[in-house]
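FIELD: query
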Amino acid sequence: MADDLGIGDVGCYGNKTIRTPNIDRLAEEGVTLSQHLAAAPLCTPSRAAFITGRYALRSGLGSHGRVQVLLFLAGSGGLPPTETTFAKRLQEQGYTTGLVGKWHLGVNCASRGDRCHHPNHHGFHYYYGLPFTMFNNCVPGEGSDVLADVERALRHLSLLLGLALLTLAGPPLPPAKVNPRWSSVCAPPTSAPRVAIRSAARRTKRSSGDRDNIADQ
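FIELD: result
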């Protein structure tokens, strides 16, 4: 299976202009298929379905959102290690398997470097290619990237985060100066108001007692 390749682009399917001797040899020594239905129009789900023989939804790689493919190397998504692939079946029969080109079915799971989604863990003895996709434009500056607005938002967020870190890492600010006009307002309270409050409380208690005596009489 190849991306960005029409059925008439190679010699074994009738192309007389472009020479593809190695692919033609594979077709001669193997099996040439002339009919095929892709399970999805995008890379990740179609590859998952092709390599497992099952709908991509069954392996957790089918979606209906805005982006339906794996985008970032830091992501933990990918083809589950428990999936049975045709490459694993071929290995069981003694074949040597290899994959050259784009994988686009994940790399790592829990940590960077565990490679649980790597082709070597899915039945391929040899792998040489790209783990993800060529997501940018063919010609820089022409057209628009699929997630251009998300990229701009992430860029702005990174700038704000950097500014915040620089602000926190800078020298401490000097203590604020209080205007003398407001010094009395900002000064800590003294004991005088508490004395006044206690005196008022005693007077209120005495007056309450007097009212109670009058009511008794």
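FIELD: remark
DSSP finds six helices and two strands in the chain.
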